[in-house]
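Request:
Um, any thoughts?
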Amino acid sequence: MTLLACQIFSTIAHEGSFARTAERLHLTPSAISHSVASMEAECGFPLFTRTKAGVTMTAAAEHLLPDIQRLLSCSESLDQSIARINGMEKGVLRLAAFNSACVTWLPQLLPGFQRQFPGIELQVYQGSYSDIAAWLKNGTVEIGLMSTSSAQELDFEPMYCDPLVCIAPVSFRPRHPGVVTAEELRGQVFVSQRPDTDADIQSYLKKNDLRVNARCYVIDDESTIAMVACGQGVAIMPQLILTRYNNRKDEVCTLRLEPAASRSIGMACRDKNGLSPAARQFWQRVREFAANL
């Protein structure tokens, strides 16, 4: 396959549509269809299934996607290296981040990076730790902000220790001011997020034998705080996200956990030695930012 064919393949897999792929790559729909037909003829098997709802990959195409993503990533890295030698920083950097990093770290990191490297197009993908790990492995993104608890076999550099805390309605009265024990949390009603949202919280619950009795199931941090504030339960959260919601201090109380726990967050990739110049620059910028927190 040519690099253009690989790019078309990858974009269709991400967009789920020939029309949107054509629009994104500035090609005609007929050119996309012709390219797919040529790829399928070259491979000897169908790659995409067309339905009224859109386009989905066949099992064979899903098997090929990680290799195609890696090939495109290598091509992008080569282009950036050539541009750097010529004194022109340009290219695309695909970055993934979990929710609290998106709302606290990235707004402080992205503008400065874009001012220094205006030729680098930054694409940000927000997701859970498991989403980010999958995107890194299949080449959808090059680098990702995540927790060491989900890094597994990825190349990971820890950069910041973020304590876990309990937030509770202001009417909640722990035995000791400012502190709540795991024993006190047993039997409490929780406001809960989906299990894969924060593996470190799930680990704390399991380690301390806290079986969550929840009546609110939410998907984001702001909703969690709002539900706790109106008395729907308590929640365990990373302290980092609470820095964005200082204006809600009168609505919830923040309690130190006993036993204490934290998450180690940092940057991850498939192989640090294979990072593009843009990814290496951003990695260093995150390292310096975290060191000054």
